[in-house]
Amino acid sequence: MSTLSKTDLDAIAINRIIEMAWEDLTPFDAIKFQFGLAEADVKALMKKELKFSSYKLWRKRVEDCKTKHLAKRIEGIDRFKCNRQRAISNNKITKR
């Protein structure tokens, strides 16, 4: 992995990266911005951490999803998460 090594990622960070990778509206650029992992690094992490069948489902989903890459996004989508999604983990805002 490029910017962060495997030892720099704790279980919480790995779980958050996996969660962000599964979200349709979260582009790979957001993961790179927050964790410093390029798309190839995220794919390698997902392959290592997920069951093979889950990884195959995720890869198919990512290939068909136009919102995972900023260049393919429909104009007007300018957020990283769904506006109906509750507060995300690692957020400084307290949950009420």
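^ that was protein a. below is b, sequence first then the tokens
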Amino acid sequence: MGYRVVDADAVDPAPDRPCECRKLSEPGGLDHAAINRFRAEPGEQLPLAYHYHETQQEAFYVLSGTLAVETPGETYEVGTDELFVVDPESPQRAYNPADANGSVTVLAVGAPPAADDAVAYDPADE
């Protein structure tokens, strides 16, 4: 048996991200899922780009604030204590709108952990 407690605030934010991203998978010893905590100020997005994953399913659980998720069909508003799920090959861009009243904090879970399967998506190509 094994157990770990990870203080997310003790994990250094990942560099080169458009918002604060604390990658919790490695400190948690997780091999089969990726877990990140994002905190985005108004006007900041969570991912590096509008994208989709070839094999990874993603779930965004909003801890506080309201998350906007742009998809080819519509933009969703995901409030506190709501979960937004993205299936593989489904383009999305999650962000905190520029006119938001404050930050949004999100716990993002992806499985399988597939850092190298993200594919950039350009809606203009449709």
